[in-house]
TrEMBL record:
This is Prephenate dehydratase. The lineage of its organism: Bacteria, Bacillati, Bacillota, Bacilli, Bacillales. Residues 3-182 form the Prephenate dehydratase domain. It comes from Lentibacillus salicampi. The record marks T175 as: Essential for prephenate dehydratase activity. One of its GO terms (biological process) is L-phenylalanine biosynthetic process. GO terms for molecular function: prephenate dehydratase activity. Its EC number is 4.2.1.51. It holds the Pfam family PDT. InterPro entries: ACT-like_dom_sf (IPR045865), ACT_dom (IPR002912), Chor_mutase/pphenate_deHydtase (IPR008242), Preph_deHydtase (IPR001086), Preph_deHydtase_CS (IPR018528). It catalyses: prephenate + H(+) = 3-phenylpyruvate + CO2 + H2O. Residues 200-277 form the ACT domain. One of its GO terms (cellular component) is cytoplasm. It is an enzyme of class 4 (lyase).
């Protein structure tokens, strides 16, 4: 049986994505994103699912940096899930928002609800946890004057009550999850893919004026649509960056080799991080 790992514990959005996308495969939670990625690399699990990007807060930098600097695993698929953040409390709490002294959640979840928290709970202490599921677990084991930000699955798993629904600042809130594996054939996602995408890692030469412009031109004149270009530090000194580029089409034997050859002629390093289907899931 295929074994799937995910950022846990129970009640995280990653677990929700895994439950929605996959059938009853053996599933295992991990405390951190690196632990989940390492488990795939060491063949302890067959598939790893980790958050990649949120529509409001942007890239989950730990995922990208770990895949680039520590463990190179190909992205085999992408799952896109709508994110609804709720304020969760213990069932015994019936007071006002002002009576809640602390809020616990993952840093991205707290940031996604910034305006609500600023307007309705300005005096509450914000406490960051490794995941929204962990925050719900902590609230379930604590007193009644604290709250967690999480989803309905977290409320159900840990016996919490939704005190306030949909507290995220923007309605069109989605998260992309990367599906990592060594063997693409073992991945069976229940929902049909709507599109395909290819992600590239590009490192620019340090002494080449106008290199970024020419990188983009290599895609533009071939009429290749880019959905994302993002820079991240190489961790080798100030001013040294690599770029993640997402192209809205699958890898082929004509356009992509042409782009790669053209960029390498400029002195760039080009690595294909994955060419994969994108599964949009409605909860």
């Amino acid at each position: 049986m295929v074994k799937i790992g995910y950022l846990g514990p129970r009640g995280t959005f990653t677990k929700l994505a895994v439950d929605t996308a996959f059938n009853g495969e053996n599933k295992q939670s991990f405390t951190t994103i690196p632990e989940c990625i390492d488990a795939v690399y060491r063949d302890e699990i067959d598939i790893g699912v980790v958050p990649l990007e949120n529509a409001i807060e942007g890239t989950v930098q730990l995922t990208v940096d770990y895949l680039v600097h520590q463990v190179r695993l190909p992205v085999m698929a992408e799952i896109v899930v709508p994110i609804q953040q709720h304020l969760l409390v213990k069932p015994g709490f019936t007071g006002e928002l002002s009576e809640l002294s602390s809020v616990y959640s993952h840093g991205q979840a707290i940031a996604q609800c910034h305006q609500f928290l600023h307007s309705h709970m300005p005096d509450a202490n914000m406490n960051f946890t490794s995941s929204t599921g962990k925050a719900a677990e902590m609230v379930s084991e604590s007193g009644e004057s604290i709250a967690a930000i999480g989803n309905r699955l977290a409320a159900s798993e840990y016996g919490l009550t939704i005190h306030q629904e949909n507290i995220h600042d923007y309605p069109n809130n989605h998260t992309r999850f990367a599906v990592l594996a060594k063997d693409k054939e073992i991945i069976r996602i229940k929902h049909e893919a709507e599109t395909e995408k290819t992600s590239l890692l590009i490192t620019l030469p340090s002494d080449y004026a106008g290199a970024l412009y020419q990188v983009l031109a290599a895609f533009a004149w071939r009429k290749m649509s880019l959905s994302k270009i993002e820079s991240r530090p190489m961790k080798t000194g100030l001013g040294n960056y690599f770029f993640i580029v997402d192209v809205n089409q699958p890898y082929d034997d004509v356009l992509f080799p042409g782009v790669k050859a053209e960029l390498e002629a400029l002195g760039c390093d080009v690595t294909i991080l994955g060419t994969y289907p994108v599964h949009q899931i409605d909860l």
